[in-house]
Design a protein that fits this description.
This protein is an alpha/beta fold. Helix content is 33%, strand content 29%. The longest helix is centred in the C-terminal third of the chain and has 29 residues.
Length: 168
């Protein structure tokens, strides 16, 4: 019976150690990537990079790296700071109060709502409006359709019987 308790004790210690090491690793890994779940950085939080697919990002603290949102918006509020670049694709960017962005800002298929006190140290590039998205996603299908139509035309042309010339 003592062997059984010893084995259970060792397994319990190993599981607790693994759980603690996983929790410690989660705290040191400060980059966040999410799919479909919004990201919120609180006023006392510090993170490295933020990447969001199909969700929104709200920043009130410090981001030491880049912020990227695909199909979602980014809101930088309450004197938050972003040391890297901010990029939104098919989403808007809202900069409130005295926020500071040290990198470049790129908004593709959305708009920038910027308070007068907000500062951006890098370049600002905007392709506003949803027309850009339509152009990017529809153009390949149009080109593919034209290519298919050309191949069908070539095949039909090669299958036609040759008509002999008549002598007059």
């Amino acid at each position: 019976m003592n062997r059984h308790y010893a084995l259970v004790s060792v397994v319990a210690i190993v599981l607790v150690a693994l759980g603690l090491s996983a929790a410690a690793y989660a705290k040191t890994s400060s980059s966040i990537t999410r799919f479909g779940h919004n990201i919120t950085v609180g006023p006392t939080d510090e993170v490295a990079d933020l990447t969001c697919f199909g969700c929104n990002i709200r920043i009130r603290g410090l981001v030491a790296g880049d912020v990227t949102a695909f199909g979602g918006s980014v809101a930088v509020e309450d004197q938050a700071q972003v040391a890297g670049d901010v990029t939104t694709f098919a989403g808007n960017l809202r900069l409130e109060k005295a926020v500071k962005l040290s990198g470049d800002v790129t908004v593709f298929g959305g708009t920038i709502d910027r308070a007068p006190e907000a500062s951006i140290a890098g370049d600002v590039t905007t392709f506003s409006g949803r027309g850009w998205l339509l152009l990017i996603f529809v153009s390949p299908f149009v080109i593919l359709g034209l290519l298919v139509a050309f191949v069908v035309w070539l095949i039909q042309r090669m299958r036609r019987p040759a008509v002999p010339a008549t002598a007059a």
